[in-house]
Design goal:
This protein is about 60% helix and about 0% strand. By secondary structure, it is mainly α. It has one domain.
Length: about 100
């Protein structure tokens, strides 16, 4: 599912991009970020507003990280590690918002 115009505008504002040249790339990054976060956390209850907010924030952080670190490798001290803030949000999504099982 593609980002809405408002969602894309908000994402670009968050990562401080003011041109439209790479909108398609940002949308791809965002779709992959959603997959990445769901693989880390498990099911996301998008009806839970708090969980949805943190999920969107985690996706935006990951898009920003991937956008800023496009090289295959980096020489020197600068590493491609996922930012601590993203790891913290993923941990909260994983343990603070239990998703009910439909099988019960």
């Amino acid at each position: 599912m593609a980002l809405t115009t408002d969602e894309l505008t908000l994402l670009k504002k968050y990562i401080r991009i003011d041109h439209d040249d790479e909108d398609d790339l940002l949308e791809k990054f965002y779709e992959r970020a959603k997959i990445y976060i769901k693989n880390e956390v498990g099911p996301i209850d998008e009806t839970n507003e708090d969980m949805k907010e943190q999920y969107d924030q985690a996706c935006a952080l990951l898009v920003e990280h991937w956008n800023d670190n496009r090289e295959a490798y980096r020489i020197g001290n600068n590493a491609y590690e996922i930012p601590y803030s993203l790891a913290s949000i993923v941990r909260q999504l994983k343990y603070c918002y239990p998703v009910e099982d439909d099988e019960e």
